[in-house]
Structures are given as structure tokens and as C-alpha cells.
Amino acid sequence: MKEIFIVEDDDGIRELLEFLLESQQYVVKTFPTARAFHKTVPEKVPDLFLLDIMLPDGNGVDLCRELKKGDETKRIPVVLMSAHADISRTEGADDFIAKPFDVDELLQRIEKQFA
Amino acid sequence: MQSNDEPAIGGSGGMGVEFRHLLDGSPVANYICDAEGRLTYFNKAAIELWGRTPILGKEYWCGSWKILYEDGTPMPLEDTPISRVLKKGVEEEKSEIRIECPNGAYKYLLVFPKPLFDRNGKLEGVHCTLVDITEQKRDHIKKETLSAIVQSSDDAIISKNLQGVIASWNRGAQEIFGYSEDETVGRSITMLIPEERLNEEDVILDKIKRGIKIDHFETIRKHKSGRDIPVSITVSPVKDSGGNIVGASKVARDITARIESQAAMKKYIRNLETLNTVGKSISENLNVEGILQRVTDATTSLTGAAFGAFFYNNSDDKGSTFQLFTLSGAPREIFDHMAMPRHTDLFLPTFRDRKVVRIDDVTKHGDFGKNAPYKGMPKGHFSVVSYLAIPVISKNGAVIGGLLYGHPEAGKFTAEHELLVINIAAQAAVSLDNSKLFEQVKSLSEKKDEFIALASHELKTPLTTIKGYLQVLSKKKADKVSQLFLDKSLCQVDKLNTLVEDLLNMSRIESGQLNFNLEVFDIREMLKEIVETFSYSSQSHRVTGTLWNDSVIIEGDKQRIEQAILNLMTNAIKYSPKADEIFVDLEVVGENMVVKVRDMGIGLTEEQRRQLFTRFYRAEDTQGISGLGLGLYLTKQIIDRHGGSIEVASEYGMGSEFSLILPLAVQKLKKVKAI
């Protein structure tokens, strides 16, 4: 069973993602802030990171850059999400999903990362 | 008593024939009245003088048609000299009367009435001799009038002989040159001429001797006090009765006022021109420093100040300093190691009390030298004696700052300078207010863009959740009605998202932050997909695509161009509610590709066509069709920024055709192929 770490500050979206991914048999762990995320990572790492870009205490793009540098994390796929559909700022990530997303498309994109 | 042998000219008057002959032939007018005053004799000369022939024995005292006093009022007959002599029986001195002839001519006469007595000494009548003095009288009046004119003239009227010696001097000459008649008559005219102009007199006299008049010669003469007087002089030769030139008459007019008014006019025009250019340049300028520098430069030059400066009124509660902002006529370095002017007694009135301060000699002024620690001008400060300070006052009454001028000499600034600078300062204040307003609007606009960016992000967050759950729900088995409602809800969520996205894009365009990810791609492929998707999703309209028979390669932001085309197609469907088909064509024309989107809808009026691409514009009769009015604005912005254009052909009620034109990426493609 693949494990996915989600960083998303909005409760509604976090719960939705948790529900969607768990219903697809993924193991999901969520973090509301970058700080909470850092308490776990890189000691524990998942099979995929799903990161929101705008966080109250940080930025998904920075987190992604960090992960791609870390020895334990650099090979783990990172998917970014944002309500600001600005693709130019997502270099380094493996994929980008614009909010609001299409549920099927989101699941397909994540599945693709494990193919 | 009338003689029958010699017909009388005008009666016999009781004279003997010989005596009568004597009088008849006399060139002097004579007549005689009897004791009752009846005319008994008059001679030819009298008829000529009166201009009429009176009736003998019927008319009394005089043969004149009308007798007048010297001032022209009628003289009653009983008041005539003859009537007086007859009444009193005493001889009278000659007296002067005026008469009017029947032809309207006036004559002046000297009357010599003499009483006639018979042998018994009884008064028998009066003999009167009339002498016509009209000519002399007129000459006299003319002379008196001329003299009065000369005397009353404001111009100096002077006569001189050919040696330049003054012969006459009028009141005007006294007024202009300050000398009385006694001081000048008999002296040389050169007393009025400044030394450096003495040769002028030689030239003038030379011309006069040759009979040439000098007309309106403008020069300088000297007042008794030594002051120069600008004058315009006209000199004419004076001839004696034999036609010989014996002297000159000179009319001099003081033209000080004229010259002053000319100079004032010139200055006024120059000032006006400066005011005009300054006004124009400051009102065109929205940049604070530009406005103030221009104002400082212009006013420094206008006032003739050695230096001029604008100081911002940075006064806080402590009232500490002003901030030098612009400087003219002096290097800025001077101020570098100097404290800014402070709330001293000299500056306070301008910066706090909005007062204009103009001082001829600031070093002698009561408010000077009270500024500790300098007690006057700081060391290294350029010398300021003349001082002028004018506040620049904002519309709200606050002193924005002060314009300060200085000059090392005393008394350099006049009331006129003061007025000029006040005027310019007022204009500058308006411009500064506008500039401030402009800055505020700009900052508000930036805030608005920030807000829209933030708001759209915040709006999208709940949209994401709503859309997600709705999609989850619509996958579950549900009854038909629930399914229909879910689909409708999802459709509305997408619409809402598009609106939010449009708003965000608009604010990005406004703030110049709309970024493009350029790539070279085949727009025919893109259109194929779009047409397919639309045909599948649109339930109301068919989409008929006529696409170019080959690849059409362009360079651009694929996503944005797709958005532009989708906007046009969505509009085509939206604004043709009664039609069931829209058309999409792709063709290549020259070096451009053209995408045409055509509908058979309500069409556009000319007015609507003109406003179509303006932000938030919505045609008036589109009630019931939703939108923010941003779609076409964004579409045009996207296409413009790709170096393309949008054209619209439409007739009201006959549908519309939008053509989206973009340059082909021919050159770029060739390069790509070469690699």
C-alpha cells in the first residue's frame, strides 16, 4: 500500500483529499502547516508528496525544492497544487494540479506517478 | 430840409451840400440822426458796412441789422452809443460794438458819436462815425487764442533763434524741464541737452537752416534736477514775413510714461509667457520632483534671484526642520554640510502661518539672527540680503512647503515678483495636489490588484472542496432528479470558477503580471479538440468546424490562446439563444492564421462594436445573459500580447463574426526543422 503525505492548510480540501485517496486504498497522512510537516519529514518518508503551494508558514515550491535536495526524499515524486494556476513557478515538481481540480483527473495524475 | 437839386445817397441830415459831398465820398461810414433819433443821413460806406440800406426817417439810431455786445448778446436800441448821446446831450468816448449783417457776417465796429447843436445850443441830432475793426480784432483774438493754446499745452513749446538761443518758453516747458521762463529765455537751448548728446543740436540747427522740419525725434533731455527725461521732439523752421528762416519752434513731449508703459508691457508679456509655459509644464507633469524643479527654475529666473529653493514642510510636533527638495542657481553641495532651515522667527511665518515674506535687507530685519547657534547666516552659507519666501499651500490649507529666494544685494525683490511667484506657487500647489491624488490612485489600484489576487485564491479554496464532493456524490448511484441537480450544481461551480479566474487574469493584466509560457504548436490540432469537446458538451448548439487542410504552426501560450478561443465560442453560443449552430473556421492568410467564430445571434450595434473590448463592458440589451464583461477584454489582451489582433464583423440582429488573427511561426519553425 502506497503512502501519501499531504500538506494542505485548508481543512475542507485536506479532508476531501484524505477521503478521496483513502477510498483509493492509499495510506494518507496530512499536515496543515510546513512546520508540522517538518516534524515528521525527513525522519519518515512516504511514496508521494502532495503539496499545496500557498501555506500559512511557507511555500510548497520551497518545500519541493528542499525535498528534491534531500538524500532520503529526492527520488520521491512531488505533486504541487495551487489555486493560482501559474505553471511557471512549479519547476522541480513532478506534476502540478490546479484548483479546483477534477476528482478523476487528480486520481489519474497520482496513479501515473506510481506507474 | 431835404435838398432837391442833389439826390442824396441816404438823406441830407440837414447838412450843406458841400459838406454832404465830403461825407458821401468818404471811405469811412458816417450817418446822422435827428433829435428824435430818426436816421436822416448815411453814406455809401455806411451801407457797405451795415450790409443793408435802412429807410430814412423811419429807422432809429442805427442802420445795423442787429447790434450786439462784445460777448454776442443783443444790445437794445436805447442802449446804443447814439441813443445814449441823444439822451444825455454829451459827447462820448469811442465805444466798441459788434453787429450782425443780414448775410450772417459779424463785424466789430468802433463808434464815434458826436452831438450836433443848433446856433442856440439846442441838441439837433447826432453825427456818428463807424470804423470797421473786424480785421484787427480777429488778429488779436487769434493771437490771444494761440497764446492761450501754447500756454495751456502739456507739451513744451519753445522758440529759439538760429543760434539756439531760447526766445519763448511755455508752461509745458516749465513742467517738463523744471525751469521757469525767466531762467531760460535768452540762454542757449543746450542747457537742456545732456553732454553726450550735444552734437544733436548742431544737426537740428543745420536742418532748420535748410528749412527741413524734424519730426518726432526721440531722444533724452535733462531736467533742472539733472534727471534724464525721454522726449519726443518736433522742430520746425520759423520764417519772417519775407520768408527768411529766422529761428525754430520746438515742441517736446515727455514720453517717460509711454516708454515706461512699453517696458511694462514687454515685461508683462514676458511674464505671461513664462507663466504660461510654467503652468503648462507643471500641469502636464505628474511627477513631484519635475513640477518643483520647473517651478523653482522658472521663478528664480523671473525674480532675478541669485538662488531659489523649494523646501518641504516636514514639520512635526517638534517643528524641527524643512527638507530641501529642489534648488536653482546654486550647487546642492552647499546645503550638504548645513542644517536645514528650522522654525526660526524668519521662516515660521511662511511655513506655519502661510505668510509671504519679502524683506529688502534681511540682515537688518528684526527677526534675523535669533537662530541659535548661528545667530544669523551659518558659515559657508551664500550671502542673502534680499529675501523672499512664499508658501505653497495645498487645497486643504496645509503648507506643502515654501519657495525661498535670496540675493546678495538689498532690495532686489519687488511686489511684482512677489505676485508672480504667488501665482506660480498656486498653480504648483494644484499640480502637487493632483500628483498626490495620482499617487493615491496608483497605490489604491495596486491594492485592488493585490486584493483581487488574494480574494480569487480564497474563493477557489472552498470551490475546490465543493466541486470535489459534488463529483464524489455524482459517482454514487442516485435517482434521476438527484443526478440532474448534481450535474447542474457542478456546471455552476465551473462557471463560478471561470468568473474568479477572469477577475484574477484581469488584475494580472492591469498590473502587468500576466505571464506567458511560450511554445510552438499546431493550432489546427488544438481547434480539432476544442470543436470535438464543444460538440460533445453543448446541448443547445452544433459546432461546425471548417479547418485548414494542413498544420498551422504558431508560437504562443497554448493555454491562454485556448482560453481566448473558448471565450469567443462560449460568447457565440451565449448570444445566439435562438440559433442552434455556431461556426468555427481556421485559415491561413499571408503570414497570419485566422480563426473565425461565427454565430447567428442577436448581433451588435455600431456603438456596441466600438465598446466591445472595454473592461466590464456589457451590451445593454443582454439582460438574462450572465457575465462580468471581462471575457472579450481578456481575449483581446491575450491576443494583443501575442502580436495579433481581433476583428469583429456584425450587424444588429444578424449575428456576429469574430476573427482572431495571429502571426504564423514560420521563421521559428524553419529553425526548429533545421536543428
UniProtKB/TrEMBL annotation, chain A:
GO biological process: phosphorelay signal transduction system
InterPro entries named in the record: Bact_response_regulator, CheY-like_superfamily, Sig_transdc_resp-reg_receiver
Coiled coil feature spans: none
Protein name: Response regulator
Span of domain Response regulatory: 3-114
Keywords in alphabetical order: Phosphoprotein
PTM annotation (4-aspartylphosphate): residues: D52
PANTHER family: RESPONSE REGULATORY DOMAIN-CONTAINING PROTEIN, STRESS RESPONSE REGULATOR PROTEIN 1
Automatic annotation (TrEMBL), chain B:
Top-rank taxon, per record: Bacteria
The UniProt record lists the keyword Transferase: yes
Enzyme Commission designation: 2.7.13.3
Span of domain PAS: 15-54, 142-211
Keyword terms of this UniProt record: Kinase, Membrane, Phosphoprotein, Transferase, Two-component regulatory system
Pfam families on file: GAF_2 (PF13185), HATPase_c (PF02518), HisKA (PF00512), PAS_9 (PF13426)
Family annotation (SMART domains): GAF, HATPase_c, HisKA, PAC, PAS
Domain Histidine kinase positions: 454-666
A GO MF term: phosphorelay sensor kinase activity
Domain PAC: 93-145, 213-267
Keyword check for Transmembrane: no
Gene Ontology CC terms, in alphabetical order: plasma membrane
Catalytic activity field: ATP + protein L-histidine = ADP + protein N-phospho-L-histidine
GO terms classed as biological process: cellular response to phosphate starvation
Stored PROSITE patterns: HIS_KIN, PAC, PAS
Name by which UniProt lists this protein: histidine kinase
